[in-house]
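Action item from last week, closing it out:
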Amino acid sequence: MPGVVKKVQCQEGDSVAQGTLIVTLEAMKMQNPLFAPMTGRIKKIHVAENESIGEDEVILEFYEDDSSDAVAQSSSA
């Protein structure tokens, strides 16, 4: 969903477990936590704190433990 990146709780290269809080967005004055959908390693962060993002914008990319790539992005849901 469109909003503002309030906090990035990880850095490129970090290992994260499934369910780890990775980014907090603010949309419509509500805090929206984004959690790692799988265990892996942060590959690339595409946003910065206090940056406005649009719908379907890529927020970060990470490698799953089996080395396949995954992407976290904002959505309209």
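Closing note: The longest strand covers residues 21-27.
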